[in-house]
């Protein structure tokens, strides 16, 4: 999907758990070598074989907070006592190198990025390259069926995921593109079509 002109996109992708977001995004990265995942920062310790700069940028809590105060993050949040966030410099660097950058992120993080990009000048490359996409299941009933089909979560976790999904679905209209994942192959093709269409807008 590479072109001579740098019209790389910042693809901000959200979905309820079980909607197929990770599967679709992983396939995109595997299919198109110029499409990569954004690497977030975190204050949690590395796990297993995680490498700094590849899986996460591992920062001390003080360094993270200092960079938040300096306005360096496009979005950030605290999850289970650990801080996570995306540096604006990381995103700009990847886009300048001609890579489509996928940000697999929840609706709260997407809202932060949407607001940050909207606050930039109209000719700012980051604002012009921002594209938000929501991947949804065909119905909440189907989503629950998929979650139960995993056979990995207890009833309490399933109910929590369903509650969160209902809240997340309420924000789907905030996104420029909505992809219903009724069939994985079809949803993947729709995603590719969105990327092609958004690139054409910028030619």
Supply database-style keywords.
single chain, 203 residues, alpha/beta, Rossmann fold, five-stranded parallel beta sheet, four-stranded mixed beta sheet, Guanylate_kinase_CS, nucleotide-binding, ATP-binding
How would you summarize the topology of this molecule?
Blueprint: E1 10-14, H1 21-31, E2 35-37, E3 41-42, E4 57-58, H2 61-69, E5 73-79, E6 82-87, H3 88-96, E7 100-104, H4 107-118, H5 125-129, E8 130-136, H6 140-150, H7 155-169, E9 177-180, H8 184-201
Parallel strand pairs: 1-7, 1-8, 2-7, 3-4, 8-9
Antiparallel strand pairs: 3-6, 5-6
Helix pairs in contact: 1-8, 6-7
Description:
There is one protein chain. The chain is an alpha/beta fold and 203 residues long. It has a domain at 10-38 and 99-201: Rossmann fold (3-Layer(aba) Sandwich), CATH 3.40.50.300. Helix content is 44%, strand content 20%. The protein is built from 8 helices and 9 strands. Helix 1 crosses helix 8 and helix 6 runs antiparallel to helix 7. The radius of gyration is 17 Å and the shape is globular. The mean pLDDT is 92. It is an enzyme of class 2 (transferase). It is found in: Cytoplasm. Keywords: ATP-binding, Cytoplasm, Kinase, Nucleotide-binding, Transferase. Its EC number is 2.7.4.8.
């Amino acid at each position: 999907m590479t072109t001579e002109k740098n019209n790389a996109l910042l693809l901000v992708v959200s979905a309820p758990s079980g909607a197929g977001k990770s599967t679709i995004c992983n396939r995109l990265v595997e299919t198109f070598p110029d499409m990569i995942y954004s690497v977030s920062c975190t204050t949690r310790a590395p796990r297993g074989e995680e490498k700094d700069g590849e899986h996460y940028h591992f920062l001390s809590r003080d360094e993270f907070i200092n960079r938040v105060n300096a306005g360096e993050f496009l979005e950030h949040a605290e999850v289970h006592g650990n801080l996570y966030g995306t540096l604006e410099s990381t995103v700009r660097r990847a886009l300048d190198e001609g890579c489509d950058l996928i940000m697999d992120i929840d609706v709260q993080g997407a809202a932060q990025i949407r607001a940050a990009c909207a606050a930039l000048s109209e000719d700012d490359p980051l604002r012009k390259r921002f594209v938000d996409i929501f991947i949804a299941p065909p119905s909440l009933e189907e989503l629950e069926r998929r979650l139960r089909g995993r056979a990995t979560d207890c009833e309490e976790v399933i109910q929590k995921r369903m509650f969160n999904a209902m809240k997340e679905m309420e924000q789907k209209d905030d996104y420029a593109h909505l992809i219903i994942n009724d069939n994985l192959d079809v949803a993947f093709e729709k995603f590719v079509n969105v990327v092609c269409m958004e690139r054409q807008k910028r030619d």
